[in-house]
TrEMBL record:
Keyword annotations: Transferase
InterPro entries: Aminoglycoside_PTrfase, Kinase-like_dom_sf
Protein name: Aminoglycoside phosphotransferase
Keyword hit for Transferase: yes
GO molecular function: transferase activity
Organism this protein belongs to: [Actinomadura] parvosata subsp. kistnae
Aminoglycoside phosphotransferase domain boundaries: 16-207
Length: 244
């Protein structure tokens, strides 16, 4: 249906301007009943969107600052691939102290979502020790030697508890900070995995010890190589994963 679906949020709705940063989706600022909001139109399945929107509602109710889905007039959290969310004020992290606040926020996310069910169609890094595909990952498209290196990195995470990970928190554009709050936006890559994958932050702001940081950094580089294969960025990330 496209952006015509916006009419399901009522009569006083309008698209204002496109927003940068979206890769897999068409993202716009919108106005609903005189208030600024964000609309995101994509091709995710209903099951996928239900998982994401229900997660955001839960995190909001638990006290985290996140983009909150705004229901349609008949109460749905999304319609025809479109999600409309509250606009989150703030700017990106600018200092090491800011990134430490981000780390604290991520740890709260991880605490709140222990045992959360996996996003439909996704795999965790340790699932990929045995599975070849999951969402945008297709290990069959990668060189066999690269797959072996990635799996060796992920194997070091085996047996650890899992929770929801944001998936891309080290991108400053995915963080909105004010003096009183830290918000994570763009939950497109969120799924269930080992929490340390979220904690490879600039300047080791999460304070991981040397061994934990090495394990997390290697597993994270392997994940990003697999998820993006094979553009220039993924090739660069794979080069950071040590040979077996």
């Amino acid at each position: 249906m496209g952006w015509e679906a916006l009419a399901q949020w009522g009569d006083d709705v309008a698209r204002i301007e496109p927003l940068t940063g979206g890769v897999a989706n068409d993202v716009w600022s919108v106005r609903i009943d005189g208030h600024r909001a964000v609309g995101r139109l994509g091709t995710r399945s209903d099951a996928d969107l239900a998982w994401e929107t229900e997660l955001l509602v839960y995190l909001d109710r638990a006290g985290m600052t996140v983009p909150v889905p705004i229901p349609t007039k008949d109460g749905r959290l999304f319609a025809d691939g479109l999600v409309v969310m509250t606009y989150v004020e703030g700017g990106p992290p600018e200092s090491q102290a800011d990134w430490r606040r981000v780390a604290d926020t991520l740890r709260e996310l991880h605490r709140l979502t222990r045992g959360w069910p996996q996003r439909p169609g996704w795999r965790s890094s340790t699932d990929l020790l045995h599975a070849d595909t999951g969402t945008r990952i297709d290990l069959g498209a990668m060189p066999a030697e690269g797959v072996a290196r990635c799996r060796a990195a992920w194997a070091r995470l085996s047996g650890r508890p899992t929770c929801v990970v944001h998936g891309n928190p080290n991108n400053p554009g995915n963080v909105r900070m004010t003096a009183s709050q830290v918000a994570l936006i763009d939950w497109d890559e969120s799924h269930v995995d080992v929490p340390d994958l979220d904690l490879v932050l600039p300047g080791n702001a999460a304070g991981l010890d040397d061994t934990a940081h090495d394990i997390a950094a290697q597993a994270s580089a392997a994940w990003e190589a697999a998820v993006c294969w094979d553009d220039d960025y993924s090739v660069k990330r794979l080069a950071e994963v040590r040979a077996v």
